[in-house]
Amino acid sequence: QNGQNLAGARKTMQARQPGLMRHPHHVEQAGAPLCAKRTRLLQRSVDCWRGLRVQVREEAVTKLEQQLQALKLSAGVDARVLRAIIREASAALTAPSRSLQDVDTRTQDASGECRLLAARSLQDRVRRVLLRGLKLWRAAFADDEQLQPMLLRVMSLIADFEASSGSSVNCACAGQLW
Q: Is 36 buried (19+), middle (13-18) or exposed (0-12) by CB count in 10 A?
């Protein structure tokens, strides 16, 4: 019966949050009320980022960079603020994409290539914010438990890339940063 409850919970979680919680061990971690709340907040952020125009995304990433820099310079690290920055950065993160050598740019016009390069540049900035935020978190706090929904999202993006491409994330654009 316990196995049936776990399977039912997994299906319910996947239906509510497609793409966020895909693996059985995520359900166990999401059982805690705070983790469930953080998962809902993350899913809302992901949904918001999906609907933003490019210019608004760039402004939002700039704001995250500024907030992170201000937090680094402050006397103490506010866990809520840092967690919110990490949440927004992980929500803004898109799945890894193939490296530029693997993309056939001959079929794209100049504006399409510019959009591709601009999107990749923005994602580089998002990854840097996320990495710096995680480093700051780990320097200030010993436990990553509060970040589990965000870390699971990143792991899910990597797993999806590896499953769909058949290659390691190291072969992706900016593979070393993943």
A: middle
Distances in whole angstroms, Cα of residue 55 to Cα of each of 32, 51, 144: 37, 12, 32
Residues in contact with 58: Cβ distance below 8 Å, sequence separation at least 6, in sequence order:
122
What does pTM read for this prediction? 0.70
Distance between first and last Cα of the chain: 39
CA distance 14 to 21: 6
In whole angstroms, give the CA distance from residue 161 to residue 92.
16
Cα gap 32→105, rounded to integer Å = 47
pLDDT tens digits, residue range 24-74? Answer: 334 344 446 778 889 999 999 999 998 899 899 999 999 999 999 999 998
CA 144 – CA 4 distance, rounded (Å): 29
Go through the chain and tell me how many residues it has. 178
